[in-house]
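A reminder before we start the practical. When you read a complex entry, don't treat the lines as separate problems. The point of joint prediction is that each chain is placed relative to the others, so the output describes one connected object in space. Small molecules and nucleic acid strands, if listed, are placed in the same frame. In the example below there are two entries. Take a minute to note the order of the lines before looking further.
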Amino acid sequence: MRTTFLEVPSIEGKNRKMEMERDGTENKTLLEMREVSKTFRKDGSDVLVLQDVNFSICEGEFVCILGPTGCGKSVTLQIVAGLIEQTTGSVILDGKEEHGPGPHKGMVFQEYALLPWRSVVENVEIGLELRGIDKKERRRIALEQLATVGLSGSEEQKVHEISVGMRQRVAIARALANDPKILLMDEPFEALDALTKEEMQIQILKVWERTGTTILFVTHDVDEAIFLSDRICVMDINPGRVKKMLVNQLPRPRHECVSRTDKAFNDMRDEIIKLYSSLKEEELDLII
Amino acid sequence: MKMGSKEDNIQSGSGMIVDFIKGRAFYLLGILLFLAAWQIACTLKGFGDFSEAFSPLSAALALLEMARNGDILHHAIPSLRRVLVSLSLAIVFALPTGVLVGYFRQLEQITYVPFQFMRMISPLAWMPIAIIIFGVGDVSVTFLLWLVAIWPLILNTVHGAGRVSPLWLNMAKTMGAKDMGILSKIIIPAAIPDMLTGLRLAVGVSWIILVPAEMLGVPDGLGYFILDTRDRFRYDQLMATIFIIGAIGYLLDSANRWLISKFAWKI
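Here is the predicted structure of the whole assembly.
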């Protein structure tokens, strides 16, 4: 009885998550993409890079957008972030149509986008500073978020003094500091070595479980998408579009329950790769 | 860097001095060779009959004399004052201009030709006009120095503000930043290393232009004193003044290098 009670704080987040899944409260739609298309003008002609993207994400969900280079997965994310405007269609977040960027949509860039003249904690504070939150309060929030990503004690270091893995964690803390409705991650672990990458994948899942935030995560790494996601939005190229939305039912917490050599994991990987090989055959047919 | 300073602290005093000299042996050698070459050229009458007056030894004696009778301070202080006043005015004008021009692409295109055209004109060419407008004296000299200092400041700031990573701008936008926030939190801090480089160049060129500018009708200053010593045939004092000009210029530049090492961020 006593030990159970003591264990509660450490697994609180997980319990909440599991309860939410059981209750079905997680089913509230947070983000909805409705018929989103994007054409770019290139060399005097219009190129369709994204065609009729439709999907929705529930509150607290971890969704990965998976696809090869040129499928428009990053463009999709940047449209959600408000950094690129869609040509047609709409982005609905929390019941409201979105126009332009804002701190309620936390963005984590592949290249970190940290400011080299600021210390770690000052980088995390930037969003709070821009919103005019007073110094004491923003330091408190920033330190709290650095603790969330496991960077307590590094707050006074300069950006060039810390490892690339740490830099991306600073960028995550910076996005979380704004208390966003959704966290948008654009191939955030792409520049990391294989070992750091796995470590960061576990880290982001822990952050997700602890904060209960919703995450939309872009990647071209099949294993990464399987390891992280609740659902995988598989995208196609020419033109960029959603091929299939896969439900990922591997048990959580993944770093304890799942190994990348499990049968279930392999099956999922095969399913995805099959999607792509059929995609290639279609293209081959077109060429022939 | 930190390790090095720790080691220095635990060494004895004399050991520190020896190390200090060891690390700078070639700098010292450079200074000695420079003085030796200067002295030898004068002793060999390399500059004609007056050569002896130009030697470092006579200059050193004249320097002592000028230090005692107050000539050094009497002329160095007005010179420094003019340079610092004009630099301050240049900074106040040039940094905001540079940031705006660097940030707004249209402004950069509008100003490009006028700026590149103006910066190639020696400020001394404006001297007659300056005298017509401001009269002979301090104001004209300050104006000419201001005119020479603004270009390196503006152009370097434009460069710094213009090459800000688009990634930082996107990041700031996703944080909800508007134009003012982007300018104050991203563009200006990002341009600081270039602003400091601009300042270093501005100080250098101001100090160089100061001497001829002070030959245009002011009653004091190092430039004025050069002409004064010439007129009094005190070539030893002239050399001493040249030495002072070089030494102050060197110190000003060192101060700038210190500013850069202190405030320019690293990647």
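Discuss with your neighbour: The mean pLDDT of chain B is 89. What might explain this?
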